[in-house]
Amino acid sequence: MSVKIASIETFLLSDRLEETFYFSQWAYSERRICVVKVTTDCGTVGWGEGYGPADVLAAGINLLKPLLIGRNPIEQETLWFEMYRKTLDYARRGVLVASISALDIALWDIKGKLLNQPVSALLGGRHRRRIKPYATGLYFSDGDNLAGRLAREAVGYVEQGFQAIKMKVGLSLRQDMENVRAVRQAIGPDTRLMVDANHAYSLREAAELCQKIERFDIGWFEEPVSPEQYNHYRDLRCKTSIPISGGECEYLRFGHHQLLKNECVDILQIDICSAGGLTEAKRVAALAATYGVEIVPHTWGTGIAFHTALHFIANLEPTPGRLFPPDCYIEYDRTSNGIRERLTLPAISMCNGFIAVPEGPGLGIEVDEDILNHYAQPKKTGISV
């Protein structure tokens, strides 16, 4: 198929929030997201998204553009390797890998549209046609009775049909205990509850918190300690019955292999939009299957990122393989984000606690470019042939 990449455009999207929220590391008063549009000489468009500082992501995409312009987008693995080789000497981890990720996702979207196939089929096929979302929310905010406010928010998610919820911890052991207790009491025993510290704690603190909250039937403890401390991850797994998860701060198959071979996690949480895109996520999935480790991707951003994760999860082999495998989960961010709610069509829809895997070509979505330009700051930039 003789098709060439004609132009690449980056969009820096910004949505100022009405109310600031925060977690253990910093506060959010604005959502800033980098989206990339890749257009072929036949007019087919692919959309991608990176996870990380939006301005730096855009600069990385600008660096990589000359490698792609005039090339065949169908050969996405070859193009991935050339982008990887270009940045290997100075970007084995970090934002430039996320720039590769955004471009790689857009190439998969183009390939699906050109071949009239959903990305999940091109990845090798779907093991499932619907995926169970868990609501990510329950961040911290200023005001009295934080535990009570988090409990009310959690009940709202249950009323919306969510069967699983993830909440933030990392303020202090005492406050975390109070918050977790209040949320569990509010939602009852049948809704799955997970916690996420965003690597706020030392090994000693994380182990103490685990002992305090084990009785609340915690689905997993996400990023309990620093992502640099592989031995602390491993040691914590030996100190608690709560499954330990992590991986959103790892890059490429090489970083995730460190977590796997050091027996750091029960659940691997690759972020497809930062760790190397779908091309590399497929390799990470093969590694995880080799070690018998479950994958639940970290997902944060617009509908582009969310639908990318839907296709990836649809293709994951069940671990362990059995006739009636357990449900796979997808993270569904419920924090304030007008960009996420308005940018892509059709709107994300949950039915009976599940979200269907898109069946349309590519990612199965369209981007509303009026909304794109509404949030774009500054306006798009690009080069073409």
Automatic annotation (TrEMBL):
UniProt-listed Gene3D superfamilies: Enolase-like C-terminal domain, Enolase-like, N-terminal domain
Residues annotated as domain Mandelate racemase/muconate lactonizing enzyme C-terminal: 147-243
Name of the protein this chain belongs to: Galactonate dehydratase
CDD domains: MR_like
GO molecular function: hydro-lyase activity; magnesium ion binding; racemase and epimerase activity
Keywords for this protein: Magnesium, Metal-binding
GO biological process, one term: carbohydrate catabolic process
InterPro entries with a match to the protein in the record: Enolase-like_C_sf, Enolase-like_N, Enolase_C-like, Mandelate_racemase_C, Mandelate_racemase_N_dom, RHMD-like
UniProt keyword annotation of Metal-binding present: yes
Needed cofactors: Mg(2+)
UniProt keyword Lyase, yes or no: no
